[in-house]
Amino acid sequence: MVSYRNIFGVTSRCLTAFKRNIYSISYNPLSYRCPYKSNSHFQHPNSLRNFSTEQQKLLQIIQGEIQHETTNYEEPSNLKSFLSSSGWKLEETEGEVNMSLKKTVNGMNVSVEFQLVSPFEPDGEGETQAEMTEFSVSVEKEGSPGNGLIFFCTTIQNDEKFRYMICNVRQFANNEAKNSIHSYNGPEFEDLDDTLQSALDEWLGSLGIDSELCDFIDSCSIDKEQREYVVWLKGVEKFLS
């Protein structure tokens, strides 16, 4: 059984997919199957003219999309207010999918890592907002890096009681073990003794992992995807111009 707390929101449900360490996520372009089927042919009687026409057409569409996205973009209201009041420092780099929040609490260096996500479910056909964001919480003692714990978690939306769940807790004694895809992630959190679950949950909560942080993660991960999409559009525009 799992210990539940309304404030810090742990539930026994755990995605099978999240059993994969976030450091082991990889992309295999050979296994990717594009759903779009091109109507292009390899030979055209007026290939040069067609190329110029099609490139101009593509450029106009890209520019229209940039105009639409920049006009309708609005930064979520909770992002700046959370950072200004919580003490967390956001670190991100344009063009990269990873983000982190860092903070020192009671002699512990806490780092929350997460990635941008699509605002819609993969099978939602643009109609359903994604309901969770995977994130990890690394905790190390000040002055003793490479020795600590990593909590693998995911946010939960549309739940009246719980805001996030813990899936696993990894213990590491050096940086190699911390980052290795082969390291043991710890037992399933729901399989731990109730007392141990509750103690780990409350300790994590004392480090600032709460509902407001989850709200920020969900908003920021979608906002980041939106901003990177515009950067991508502008890059395509520059290439075609």
Automatic annotation (TrEMBL):
SUPFAM superfamilies: Mitochondrial glycoprotein MAM33-like
GO CC entries: mitochondrial matrix
Protein name (database record): Mitochondrial acidic protein MAM33, putative
Native source species: Babesia microti (strain RI)
